[in-house]
Amino acid sequence: MFEHIDAYPGDPILSLNEDFAKDPRANKVNLSIGIYYDDEGRLPVMRAVREAEAQLLEAPAAKPYLPMAGLAAYRDAVQSLVFGDDAPARKEGRIATVQTLGGSGALKVGADFIKRYFPGSQVWVSDPTWDNHRFIFERAGFTVGTYPYYDEATGGLQFDAMLSAIRDLPAKSVVLLHACCHNPTGVDLDEAQWIRLIDVIEQRDLLPFIDMAYQGFGAGLDADAFAIRELARRNVPAFVANSFSKNFSLYGERCGALSVICESAQTAVRVLGQLTSAVRANYSNPPTHGATIVARVLTTPALRRSWEEELASMCTRIACMRGAIHERLRGNVPDAMLARYLEQRGMFTYTGLFAAQVDAMRERHGVYLIRSGRMCVAALNERNVEATASAIGDVLSNAFA
Ligand code: LMR
């Protein structure tokens, strides 16, 4: 019966993370998956999350099915955080939001919805992008193409090439964009560039799909949502996936949401209905625990303050580690490859290391990066930064020998 089933070659991120767990070496270093670890190398439970969970334990509640669209308080808190509490689009009821299984769930529900209502559209992702973007949209039945994005020579953005490629796309093309802290490159558009891009999106009648997995890890909670808020302000129809995996350190709770900016409140009701139907067809309704925590933290002033402060301190620690690795690599890494450790934003640096060099770092030194050369700088700490820098120095000097 199953003779024709292919072997799964594995996922470039999650399978590598599983390989890391099996690696018996005591001094191994995991800079592969996009997870924030504290200076002790531990996955933090944020203070506000701990407090919200303690409150929930004090008054245990029954766990009925949630509505298909998710927990109402969570959906409202998501809209407030992503679009701004006073956003006119929100007040006017033009945003349809459903709770989803993480950001990936939001992408899948959105992909299913788009396939149903825009069956002729093609999807365009940045070159490069998070591997799962392509996978999710292809599995939903789309052809996925790329637009220029990263400039390997400078470690920055090829904005003009990006804009001109997007300008040439047919109307109703789906353009997948990263709101902030681009994964894997750490290279973002500035506000002026976003405005020029949104002009093109509007003129060409394109469908932006914004993925915001790292809100709060770039320029701040509000600034990171700049493009989304600008789209909503200009009433440009758009899909927005967001996730609390990283900024709440709630990876395993699968807390995400999909919001769609609609042209009118009446349309938003119908869109919400069809998003809900996509949820029902995939997994019926989402789970309660993580959403209850997030909603409680975001809507309780003391918990919200604590969460924002801790998130800011996580960003400060990442910035320190960027400085620390930069310092240690100086002199061992060509200048052109060095600046990006400081300049690229969020959890990642796109090191410019080749797959063979990454493999050598893993095999010889137990230091794990993604084979594209992506390093999770949010997992660096005072104890592993030295080993990481010397592993990079080693593979570079061997490659150049
Ligand atoms: C990553 O990019 O490492 C994370 O978003 C985890 C994942 O699911 O790939």
Automatic annotation (TrEMBL):
<dbReference type="GO" id="GO:0005829">
    <property type="term" value="C:cytosol"/>
</dbReference>
<keyword id="KW-0663">Pyridoxal phosphate</keyword>
<dbReference type="InterPro" id="IPR015421">
    <property type="entry name" value="PyrdxlP-dep_Trfase_major"/>
</dbReference>
<dbReference type="InterPro" id="IPR000796">
    <property type="entry name" value="Asp_trans"/>
</dbReference>
<keyword id="KW-0808">Transferase</keyword>
<dbReference type="InterPro" id="IPR004839">
    <property type="entry name" value="Aminotransferase_I/II_large"/>
</dbReference>
<keyword id="KW-0032">Aminotransferase</keyword>
<comment type="subunit">
    <text>Homodimer.</text>
</comment>
<comment type="similarity">
    <text>Belongs to the class-I pyridoxal-phosphate-dependent aminotransferase family.</text>
</comment>
<dbReference type="GO" id="GO:0004838">
    <property type="term" value="F:L-tyrosine-2-oxoglutarate transaminase activity"/>
</dbReference>
<dbReference type="InterPro" id="IPR015424">
    <property type="entry name" value="PyrdxlP-dep_Trfase"/>
</dbReference>
<dbReference type="GO" id="GO:0030170">
    <property type="term" value="F:pyridoxal phosphate binding"/>
</dbReference>
<dbReference type="Pfam" id="PF00155">
    <property type="entry name" value="Aminotran_1_2"/>
</dbReference>
<dbReference type="GO" id="GO:0042802">
    <property type="term" value="F:identical protein binding"/>
</dbReference>
<protein>
    <submittedName>
        <fullName>Aromatic amino acid aminotransferase</fullName>
    </submittedName>
</protein>
<dbReference type="GO" id="GO:0033585">
    <property type="term" value="P:L-phenylalanine biosynthetic process from chorismate via phenylpyruvate"/>
</dbReference>
<dbReference type="InterPro" id="IPR015422">
    <property type="entry name" value="PyrdxlP-dep_Trfase_small"/>
</dbReference>
<feature type="domain" description="Aminotransferase class I/classII large">
    <location>
        <begin position="27"/>
        <end position="392"/>
    </location>
</feature>
